[in-house]
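re: that chain from earlier
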Amino acid sequence: MKTIKDSVHDHIRIDGVAHALLDTPELQRLRNIRQLGTVSLVYPSANHTRFEHSLGVYHLACEALEHLGVEGRQAERVHAAALLHDVGHGPFSHNLESITHRRTGRYHDDVHELLVEGDVGAVLREHDLEPTAVADLVAGEGRFGQLVSGELDVDRMDYLVRDAHHTGVPYGTIDHGRLVRELTFADGELVLDEGNVQSAESLLVARALMNPTVYSHSVARISKAMLRRATERLLESPAADIDAATLQRMDDHDLIVALRSCEATDEFSRRLDQRDLFKRAVWAEIDDVPGGIIEADHETIREFEREIADAAGVDPERVILDVPGRPSMTESTTRVMVNGDVRRLGEQSPLVEALRAAQYSQWRLGVYSPPELRDRVGRAAVAVLGLDIDGGLVSEVRDGLDATLDQFVE
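^ sequence. v structure.
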């Protein structure tokens, strides 16, 4: 048995298959992958890693299984899946997942091949665990897969508290101890037991508040968009000789070195290193964006960027169009027991619709460019995209928001 001191859960005891997995190269790689990617450019203390998060998820999974009375080989499978649930992440966590998925067809939770091969596969088999069964749990399949990846998963319970702790933002604080203790199964579905509507709402509120404050902060979005653009150029560069499958197994340091070493990406690399970031040329609300742009695929977005650059008379590499997906609220499908019936939180809680409206109002399309070009690029973007906003107001509103935000964060 090993005991590890954790900044969130205090002491975490690790034994069994989890102890044997702890020092595998696949898991140790997560020490060099930041949990929040480029968010540290906004919150300097947000340097926690996927490794410590994985320990936290394992810890909460152990508590949940103990409460549910699950022991033996089934418990060991879930322990392994909880600890290994993030080994499929590439550098900078989710920031680059859209790029690698377009080229490999794999998301970070598709770890079947990774768990079958190498040291992890050997450890699992030594403990009489089938690697594909553990990989299925990581993907959220089956009764206990819901505990690792689902609406009430221990992954979400850990990252909200951990991200809040390391950014210093208080909104992610939830009573994860109660949430874990109140988990139960009803007709094979993981639910919160009677009297826990408010506990379920706390997850919803925490996620809704953390999103604009941390995960989708404008500077985090700009730096993530710049990192994506640099990485795309890296993959397209013959001199770099890096493909998407190789990228998925790199860590943050590997990618930073590759970006610094490639002539096609050295300018973006310098800007990210020195926090010399692009600025918002346009920051448009969802109702101001014509239909079809939000659903546009990657190539269409790049074509829009080229058109904006041409209209503004600037290099296309000086224009980035950032279009988030439509607002969604997975947590609203959380199941809770109410008067003996299993109900979706969205059907039971009056908070859900209010939070949906808030999420809708917070959505923004972004067009980014170097500071000296943003007025030209902003006017061109409004015209090319057909945005229903006054071009003259773009800079005025944006500058007011910039000045307000600068009071609170770097």
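Strands lie at 2-6, 10-14, 183-186, 189-192, 279-285, 320-322, 335-338, 341-344, 364-369.
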